């Protein structure tokens, strides 16, 4: 599971360099996210622009990452492709996450 | 104008998450799924992935097995049939796919989205268990 991370001001930007977050990669995704989010930052943004498909296991993994960050850190999402957006919208998880429409993230606004 | 003949695809896969991923990639590279609109493909992939993952996680659980998927497309309906030889659905019935509460009273759910997604995106849904086989047949609209 390829993910890259970059700290920009107060935001840790993690980019998923895989086409899918699904039942066969959800555990690896959670493990990599746990490692990468060791870098302290008030905000964490997940760039999903390369992810064309997510299933319910992948969605569960993203929710698990949000919960693991705890109340003091925010998990924001950016670059949702149409099918990924559909999964978030149908499950109403789009109301749980801050979702940015535009990439690159506008770093001037602190959440 | 001649009417395009109904397109059919059939695939047999092992009950394993990686095999499900590979089977979806193969199915979406051939007719009829290959030729649908991006939106139709997205809908079909969400539903098929959940249906296949359910078989891997519940019907076959830790045991291995074989899953057969048959697709028939007749504009604008995609008919799908998923057959396995695993455990029957609990109570012999399909889960109703109740939406997960996101009301702040409950801990955020990390699962239970699968049947909700399937129910949200399909029209007819038939399940039967006979001769040691589960058959799940459903139809969805996909242009």
The order of strands across the largest sheet of chain B is: 1-2-3-5-4
Radius of gyration of chain A: 13 Å
Named at the architecture level, the CATH assignment of chain B is 2-Layer Sandwich
Query: How many strands of chain A?
Result: 7
What is the average of the pLDDT values of chain A?
A: 92
Biggest interface found = A-B, 25 and 31 residues
Number of domains of chain A: 1
- Are there runs of chain B of 5+ residues with pLDDT below 50, and where? none
According to CATH, the fold-level topology of chain B is Heat Shock Protein 90
Multimeric organization: heterodimer
List keywords for this structure.
heterodimer; A: 111 residues; alpha/beta; Transcription Regulator spoIIAA; five-stranded mixed β-sheet; 7 strands; B: 143 residues; alpha+beta; Heat Shock Protein 90; five-stranded antiparallel β-sheet; 3 helices
Quick rundown:
With 111 residues, chain A is an alpha/beta fold. Chain A has a single domain, classed as Transcription Regulator spoIIAA.
Structure description:
The complex is a heterodimer of chains A (111) and B (143). Chain A is of the alpha/beta class. Chain A has one domain (3-100): 2-Layer Sandwich (Transcription Regulator spoIIAA), CATH 3.30.750. Chain A is built from 3 helices and 7 strands, in the order E-E-E-H-E-E-H-E-H-E. In chain A, the strands form 2 sheets. Chain A has a 5-stranded mixed sheet with strand order 1-2-4-6-7, with helices on one face. Chain B is an alpha+beta fold and 143 residues long. Chain B has one domain: Histidine kinase-like ATPase, C-terminal domain (Heat Shock Protein 90). In chain B, helix 1 packs antiparallel against helix 2 (38-59) and helix 2 crosses helix 3. Chain B starts with 6 loop residues before the first strand and ends with a strand. Classes of the chains: A alpha/beta (111), B alpha+beta (143). Chain A binds chain B through residues 20, 22-24, 53, 55-57, 59-61, 63-64, 66-67, 82-83, 86-87, 90-93, 95-96, and chain B through 17-18, 20-21, 38-39, 41-43, 45-46, 49-50, 53, 56-57, 99-100, 102, 107-114, 116-117, 120-121.
């Amino acid at each position: 599971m390829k993910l890259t991370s970059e700290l920009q001001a107060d935001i840790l930007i993690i980019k998923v360099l895989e086409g899918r977050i699904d039942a066969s990669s959800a555990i690896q995704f959670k493990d990599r996210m746990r490692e990468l989010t060791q870098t302290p930052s008030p905000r964490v943004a997940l760039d999903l622009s390369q992810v064309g498909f997510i299933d319910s296991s992948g969605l569960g993994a993203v929710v698990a990452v949000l919960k693991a960050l705890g109340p003091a850190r925010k998990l924001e999402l950016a670059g949702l492709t149409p099918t990924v957006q559909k999964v978030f919208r149908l499950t109403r998880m789009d109301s749980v996450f801050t979702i940015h429409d535009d990439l690159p993230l506008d770093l001037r606004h602190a959440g | 104008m001649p009417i395009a003949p109904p397109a059919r695809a059939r695939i047999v896969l092992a009950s394993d998450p990686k095999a499900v991923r590979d089977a979806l990639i193969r199915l979406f590279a051939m007719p009829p799924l290959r030729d649908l609109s991006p939106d139709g493909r997205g809908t079909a992939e969400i539903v098929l992935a959940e249906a296949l993952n359910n078989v891997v996680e519940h019907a076959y659980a830790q045991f291995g097995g074989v899953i057969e998927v048959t697709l028939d497309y007749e504009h604008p309906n995609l008919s799908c049939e998923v057959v396995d030889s695993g455990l029957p659905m609990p109570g012999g019935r399909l889960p109703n796919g109740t939406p997960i509460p996101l009301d702040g009273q409950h801990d955020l759910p990390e699962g239970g989205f699968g049947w909700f997604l399937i129910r949200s995106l399909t029209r007819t849904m038939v399940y039967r268990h006979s001769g040691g086989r589960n058959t799940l047949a459903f139809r969805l609209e996909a242009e």
